[in-house]
Design a protein that fits this description.
Chain lengths: ~300, ~290
């Protein structure tokens, strides 16, 4: 039981890291970034590259994954979103543009690494197991959970208390007013993408470490989960996304434990049923403050 | 003539799939025309596909009746669903319908009579090309007539400004719901045709990827007219064949074309002909309806 709960918290942490980046871009720019799963996957592959080519330790590789995917996020924005923003195109266009971008990158990675599972170099990941009571917990996952919590704390501090964070919030409120008030809007947008993609990339690297199996399409299942997480927590609310992620993680593991084996597939239906119900009954989610009726 | 017959023989499957994709693109067009982004059409397609296939295989129901029953079932489901989700707008509406789509997919994975993850195999391949293209012609004609009618103008008014439309006495919820139900029926009809065109169907065929693909057909083709979705579906379905010489790079080109169209041709490919007009509209800020 303790092990199941531990797994639920681990899964929730990965969902949370994935979803906060997704939610950040949505809350600031109203974009559903369908290239976010790509950034997630790239994080795992950047870490692989650092570890297998330069023999860097996993922790250092994760830091590089954060920086590299963050920079890639800025690139993504320049290519897929900036031209649309200049034209004042509707959010739907940005979604489709990011989809095209995602197809291109995933295909390029498949050409380079093949569509199948790739592992990290042997012996590069710690295999320690911690014994607490009668539960055996994988130490690596414990580190990942801790790291996820620290990162999300840092993000909260950044958005609430720093000047750049205030700029980003001003931008989210009203881009035009923000610009009039002297906010460097371009810098705020670039920072938003850097942080969003950096978090996505580090989530991918950490998930890759935990499962030791990465592949070009690995981000795709997380995309749909991130929708659920955002909706349950409240669209555009970062604490909401974190809360939603843990609720989904725990709910899924609970379904796995309590549902009979032949109905195990239903646990995904549970997630999306939850999504659907929250949208219909309480569209602003648990912690959302904006009115969902806003188009 | 021989060359033409040969062409049809070689590309028969592709030609069939083009027609079905065009129907699917039209099924989402009608809601897009009313300014509503819904992504449930892959699920309605699944309902039509499983409905028609199961009725045909287990009960020996003839194809037209199977298609009609599938479309009816789909419409019957779309009605309460639409009542629930049309309280939402924009991305929220899109995500709610994605949620519905995933529930349908997972239910198909779990039900005892849908073959679970393996899906249904050995579906009699009785769909002929003329079934598909007759359906497409009828649906396209009907939508074209609707577009020019009072109903079409009401849908366009809702798209442009819902409040203004409502203040003119247009019953917004009712029109949205009607467009949604009609789209669901068309998608289910297309699904039934596709089930009997292919040998097998599985729940994975009708997931999120398919939902987005249907949207992409319509948006890339262009939503201002009925011709747009048909053109978009045709081009994007034929593209892998056209790009065949590029071998493994063809998906990359498909992705780049998708980005290029959405960035440089905001109203879709059909507006290529009237590019200058589009530019002028952009200058006064009146383009972009999608």
């Amino acid at each position: 039981m303790a092990e199941q709960l531990y797994n639920a918290i681990f899964v929730g942490s990965i969902y949370a890291l994935f979803a906060v980046g997704f939610a950040l871009v949505f809350s600031v720019l109203d974009i559903l970034n369908l290239a976010h799963p790509v950034v997630f996957m790239l994080g795992a592959f950047v870490a692989l590259f650092c570890m297998s080519t330069f023999g860097l330790p996993a922790g250092f590789a994760a830091v590089i994954a954060f920086l590299a995917t963050g920079a890639f996020g800025i690139f993504l924005d320049r290519i897929a979103f900036a031209p649309l923003r200049r034209r004042g195109a509707p959010p739907l266009s940005a979604m489709i543009s990011s989809l095209g971008f995602a197809i291109v990158v995933i295909r390029l990675m498949e050409l380079r690494y093949g569509p199948d599972l790739t592992s990290y170099p042997a012996g590069s990941l710690p295999q320690t197991v911690v014994q607490i009571g009668d539960a055996r917990l994988d130490a690596l996952r414990l580190v990942i959970i801790g790291l996820a919590i620290v990162l999300m704390g840092a993000l909260t501090y950044f958005v609430r208390a720093t000047q750049l964070g205030r700029d980003i919030r001003a931008l989210a409120e009203n881009p035009r007013a923000a610009r009039l008030l002297g906010v460097n809007v371009d810098r705020a947008i670039a920072s938003t993408f850097f942080i969003s993609s950096g978090f996505g990339g580090v989530a991918g690297a950490l998930l890759g470490f935990a499962y030791n199996a990465i592949y070009p399409q690995m981000g795709t299942p997380y995309e749909l989960k991130a929708f659920t997480v955002m909706v349950v927590g409240g669209m555009g609310s970062l604490p909401g996304a974190v809360l939603g992620a843990y609720i989904l993680g725990i709910g899924e593991i609970a379904a796995l434990v309590f549902l009979p084996a032949d109905l195990a597939e239903l646990r995904d239906a549970l997630a999306f049923g939850l999504l659907f119900l929250v949208l219909v009954i309480r569209p602003r989610g648990l912690l959302g403050h904006r009115v969902a009726e806003r188009a | 003539m021989d060359a033409l017959a040969e062409f049809f023989r070689v590309y028969q499957t592709t030609i069939g799939v083009i027609g079905i994709n065009a129907l699917l693109a039209l099924s989402i067009w009608i809601t897009l025309y009313a300014g509503q982004l819904t992504l449930g059409n892959a699920a309605f397609m699944a309902i039509g596909a499983y409905g028609a296939a199961l009725l045909g295989m287990r009960a020996g129901v003839p194809l037209p009746l199977g298609l009609a029953l599938g479309a009816l079932l789909s419409a019957a489901l779309a009605l309460p669903l639409g009542l629930a989700v049309f309280r939402l707008r924009g991305v929220y509406l899109a995500i709610a319908t994605i949620g519905f789509g995933e529930v349908v997919r997972v239910v198909l994975l779990t039900l005892p009579f849908t073959g679970k993850a393996l899906g249904l195999n050995g579906i009699p391949p009785i769909t002929e090309l003329w079934h598909i293209y007759l359906s497409l012609a009828v649906v396209a004609y009907m939508l074209w007539r609707i577009q020019g009618s009072t109903v079409g103008r009401a849908l366009a008014a809702i798209r442009e400004d819902e409040m203004a439309a409502a203040s003119q006495g247009i019953r917004v919820r009712r029109y949205k719901l009607a467009a949604f139900v009609a789209g669901a029926a068309i998608a289910a009809w297309a699904g039934g045709l596709s089930a009997h065109l292919n040998f097998s169907i599985e729940p994975g065929d009708f997931g999120f990827t398919r939902a987005v693909q249907i949207l992409v057909f319509a948006v890339v083709g262009g939503t201002p007219s009925v011709a747009g979705p048909i053109f978009g579906a045709t081009l994007l379905t034929a593209l892998p064949e056209i790009l065949r010489p590029l071998k493994e790079y063809r998906d990359i080109f498909a992705g780049l074309i998708l980005m290029g169209v959405i960035i440089y041709l905001p109203r879709g490919l059909v507006t290529l002909a009237e590019l200058r007009k589009t530019r002028r509209l952009q200058e006064i800020g009146a383009a972009d309806v999608a």
